[in-house]
């Protein structure tokens, strides 16, 4: 019988610990721990704000909850000082770390964006320079083509003039030869004496 009672008592003490839930003390400076579920019970210690605790049970009538702190102490504190949310003392370093990581990512993103922007600007400048060089080359080629066309026209005009001069020379030379031959044919009979015919009809 005694063994049965002992087992029941042990199980009753073990049940609250099995159902203990993680909670935190709200962000106050500290709160007192009492030996019972009200401030009428003696103070057995204090617990700092932000400390992680185990919630064992709650007394809605008195507004106190039994807890187990990190030092293994059991006591009662006001339920309004217990929260599910981590305290600022715990959350602040995490938030600062997250903020630092976000800032680092943002800085990296800005550096990457600046690098890409600089690369695009350099590429644009190079392409603009290439376009300017191509336009200059096109202008030079156009000028050379215009000069070549002008020179070709001048050479063709000169060639046509030379052909006309050559034809005129040929014509004058041919006319001179023909005129000289005609004149020579007219003068020649007068220069050469005619032979007198003999009476017998023989020269």
Task: Walk me through this protein's architecture.
This protein is an alpha+beta fold and 203 residues long. Helix content is 60%, strand content 18%. The chain has helices at 2-18, 88-191, and strands spanning 21-25, 30-34, 43-48, 52-59, 64-68, 74-78, 82-83. A hairpin with a 4-residue loop joins strand 4 (52-59) and strand 5. The mean pLDDT is 79.
Based on the model shown, name its key terms:
203 residues; alpha+beta
Q: Indicate the low-confidence ranges by residue numbers.
A: none
Approximately what portion of the residues adopt beta-strand conformation?
15-25%
Radius of gyration: 64 Å
Specify the overall morphology.
Answer: rod-shaped
- Helical stretch count? 2
- In spatial order, strands of the major sheet run 6-5-4-1-7
Helix content range: 55-70%
Average pLDDT, all residues: 79
Q: What's the quaternary structure here? A: single chain
State the total count of DSSP E strands: 7
How far is it from the N-terminal to the C-terminal residue, by CA? 200 Å
Global structural class: alpha+beta
Q: Secondary-structure element order, as H and E?
A: HEEEEEEEH
Main β-sheet description: 5 strands, antiparallel
Coiled coil: 92-165
Subcellular location: Membrane
Transmembrane segments: 170-192
GO cellular component, one term: membrane
Give the helices and strands, then pairings.
Elements (H helix, E strand, L loop, with lengths): L1 H17 L2 E5 L4 E5 L8 E6 L3 E8 L4 E5 L5 E5 L3 E2 L4 H104 L12
Antiparallel strand pairs: 1-4, 1-7, 2-3, 4-5, 5-6
In short:
With 203 residues, the chain is α+β, with helices and mostly antiparallel strands.
